[in-house]
Amino acid sequence: MSQSLFVCSAYTRAIVGHAEQSGLDSKRLLARVGICPSSLVDPARRIAAQAVERLWRECELAGAAPTFGCELVDGLATTDLQGLNILLDTAATLRASLGCFVRFVPRISNHVQVELLEAGDFARLQLRPAQSAVHHFGFDAATCTLVRNIARRLGKPADAVFASVTLCPSQFAGQWLRNEGVAVERGEYPQLTVHRAMLDEALRGANPFLHQSMLRHWLSESGERDDSLALARHWLTAGDQPIERIARRLGYGQPSNFIRAFRKRFGITPKQFRLHSGSGC
């Protein structure tokens, strides 16, 4: 039996949000592909990859520009996707960060298989469809977001990090990449080629304590959302981040949804937990 392909709702919600910013009717799009809006509230909810592929196509049919996926990078680059970007940002080196990406991205989506290959002076991050075709919007969004985030983590311009980026024939990310100074090639599937020496460079946001904390949560068997709620307790105790920011970092579009989920699991609101954390709550 073939594995059920899925995309997490946090990623799906980013697509819908960008569609709205592009002037498209998000409610109509979701209705046409059979995705219930309420299913996008929980960032860990799994949405059938087939439905997400239909959502890409409906966006295209509704008039989205061919570069729709490239434009999505601004939203995805700052979206934590249940804490995955935090895990990647806080790793010590690019090698460790990409290792976590390859290892854990299947918990965000198993629709695309990711592999890091090292040979000679280069390392290649490959993205391949798992069982079915991936719309070029999806590949464009993934490619551009990876390029931007990897360069940002190293604190270098993209053209200093990437020797080249290979795109599928259907992709429209070529001009976006050239604007970043990156050489573009054509191939069967997307592939990001970096100078191998970059893998062992330290990341600007390296934070051993937070990285190990996040890594323990991702390795836990309790599931992504429970992990993120447990991490929320750490942030509420260890700092003075506003509750709204914590909710946003954990992928909750509305703070009220985060508060509701936190109270359901721990029997107390985040504010109450913060106020009483010194008393052993």
UniProtKB/TrEMBL annotation:
InterPro entries: AraC-type_N, Homeodomain-like_sf, HTH_AraC, Tscrpt_reg_AraC-type_HTH
Record keywords, A-Z: DNA-binding, Transcription, Transcription regulation
UniProt keyword DNA-binding present: yes
A family per Pfam: HTH_18
Residues annotated as domain HTH araC/xylS-type: 229-276
PANTHER family reported in the protein's UniProt record: HTH-TYPE TRANSCRIPTIONAL REGULATOR GADX, HTH-TYPE TRANSCRIPTIONAL REGULATOR VQSM
Protein name (Swiss-Prot/TrEMBL): AraC family transcriptional regulator ligand-binding domain-containing protein
